[in-house]
Design goal:
Shape: globular
Number of helices: 10
Radius of gyration: 19 Å
Helix content: 25-40%
Largest sheet: 7 strands, mixed
Distance between the termini: 14 Å
Structural class: alpha/beta
Number of strands: 11
């Protein structure tokens, strides 16, 4: 699968990547729970993405939410967690510094919503067009903002954007709308059209979605998998809802005694740590494993 994925990203050919599913794993030899290996487990450090070595940078590392300084490694790859309030030209200046002074050829921006501000993206494109850097970069984004900035997509590709991560948020228009508060209508059709538009502009896509919400049943999990097939991203990461301590979901789960696994090292979006209203942890893990292979 890793070979097919690398070929697809280097050449633009699309590949259906099958991921082995081992839903049941021992938890310290005492308990067994649903486990789904995330796509990132299939690769190795230094695997090629878009023709560039991405060393320690994890282009789908949703766990890296904290903003901080730029990190670069000897192989010329870096992870940049930019301050969401910085302007596009300031970001371009930092990219130039990393590229020309430290030889960084590829960057992963880990802002939750890198292109939230339209003017920031206009300024970034204009600055990078002036600088003509030898650099490729990846970012996390929201579908609404990519649709809003459709006129910038071709220019963004020319200045190095080669891949974006987009959350799908559901399997029906209603479920997606509930998760996406705002005026713009974004449903299955709009997401599919966006993916196709990005593909035509030589920008590949990673799409993520979660299983394990309290109201999830077998029909909802299967419908999400069906919707993802219709939306047709290049790479899919299916993750399992983990109640992060301090979050509203965690407080509710603790109050109602829903959490069955309290080992925080397993809160990695790959292990089932609590059931849903209709599915046990094992059932949820098996259904998510089925979705990986479907």
């Amino acid at each position: 699968a890793g070979h097919e994925l690398g070929d697809a990203l280097r050449t633009g050919r699309r590949a259906r990547v099958r991921v082995e599913s081992r839903f049941l794993v021992g938890l310290r030899g005492q308990q067994r729970g649903g486990h789904v290996p995330a796509l990132r487990r299939r690769g190795e450090r230094g695997r090629e993405l878009g023709g560039h070595e991405v060393g320690d940078a994890d282009p789908a590392g949703l766990g890296l939410r904290t903003r901080g300084a730029a990190v670069a490694d000897r192989r010329g790859a870096g992870v940049r967690r930019a301050d969401g309030g910085r302007g596009g030209r300031a970001v371009a200046d930092e990219m130039e510094l990393l590229n020309k002074n430290y030889g960084v050829k590829a960057l992963t921006f880990m802002d939750d919503d890198f292109n939230s501000d339209r003017q920031k993206m206009v300024d970034l494109v204009e600055a990078l067009e002036e600088k003509k850097l030898d650099m490729s970069w990846f970012c996390l984004s929201r579908a609404q903002n990519l649709i809003r900035d459709a006129d910038l997509i071709a220019r963004l590709r020319k200045v190095g954007l080669y891949q974006v991560l987009i959350g799908i948020d559901g399997g029906t228009d209603e479920e997606i709308a509930e998760a996406r508060k705002g005026n713009m209508k974004v449903g299955v059709k709009e997401l599919r059209d966006l993916i196709q538009f990005l593909r035509k502009n030589d920008i590949s896509t990673i799409s993520t979605y979660l299983n394990g919400f309290w109201e999830d049943d077998e029909a909802k999990v299967r419908q999400r998998a069906k919707a993802v097939d219709e939306i047709d991203p290049d790479i899919v990461m299916i993750q399992l809802l983990n109640p992060i301590p301090g979050s509203p979901i965690y407080k509710k789960a603790v109050k109602e005694s829903l959490i069955e696994i309290d080992n925080l090292s397993l809160y990695d979006l790959e292990h089932c740590v609590m059931p849903t209203k209709y599915l046990g942890r094992q059932q949820l893990g098996e259904l998510t494993g089925w979705a990986f292979q479907s």
